[in-house]
Amino acid sequence: MKGQRTERLVRIASRFMLGPSRHLSLTDLAQDFEVSKTVISDDMEIIDKAFSDEMLGGIEVDRGRSGGAYFVPRVGEELRRRWLEQIAQVLSSPERSLPGGFVYYTDLIFDPRVASMLGLIMASRFSSLRPDTIMTSEVKGIPIAMFAAHALGVPLSICRFRNRPSDGPAVAVHFPTGAGDVRTMYMGTRQMGSSKRVLVVDDFMRGGSTVSGMLQMAKEFGSQVVGVGIFIAAQDPPRKSIPEYNALLTISGIGDSLKIRVND
């Protein structure tokens, strides 16, 4: 597979982008491209600088026995804010305001271009916590969570509000809603093992009851929640049912007074 260096750089970079957070052996790369490991190490520095200049992340190299490298998503602050301000501007249209203080965003998060961008931002924010799995709830939390899981190189576990025979045996938890009702959430026992480091990702949060249910689910599996990432959080009520979370956007007001703020 030996060829020009430019071609080799492009092909190696494409492997990192197609498998973010996935370990690539420097020895295997050297064999694939018929060059020395020293040459591959030099290539890593060039690719790392290119990714950093694009504010997408960087390449981390393990100099130990494994001798591998992987792409770590780290969206730069300037790029993150630019992307989110574009989304906030779209969502701020009065036509997107829905009864009850909601905003219509389904078309955005089910657009792979937008969902992948949001997933990369979410992964960048929590990559240092080294989660083993991403947990979300059906249905609208899935696109962002899936792309975040892809960027972090971990599996996705989905909490459902109705048990499906195709999921096999399931764990059920009950949690109160803001309206005073009690809902039930299910997760198949084969989806997530015990003693995992869990990152919870969801699309929208008002009072935090759904996220609270997912925290209970993680506890039932004997896993540790290392972070909670939300696409949009409502400003009201100010006091949520979960102690800590990280929201990309905050919504306040309704109709003509609707406001979407990008969070730091």
UniProtKB/TrEMBL annotation:
The keyword DNA damage does not apply. One of its GO terms (molecular function) is glycosyltransferase activity. GO terms for biological process: regulation of DNA-templated transcription. Gene3D superfamilies: 3.40.50.2020, Winged helix-like DNA-binding domain superfamily/Winged helix DNA-binding domain. Pfam families: Pribosyltran, PuR_N. Residues 129-236 form the Phosphoribosyltransferase domain. Residues 4-73 form the Bacterial purine repressor N-terminal domain. This is Phosphoribosyltransferase. It comes from Thermanaerovibrio acidaminovorans (strain ATCC 49978 / DSM 6589 / Su883).
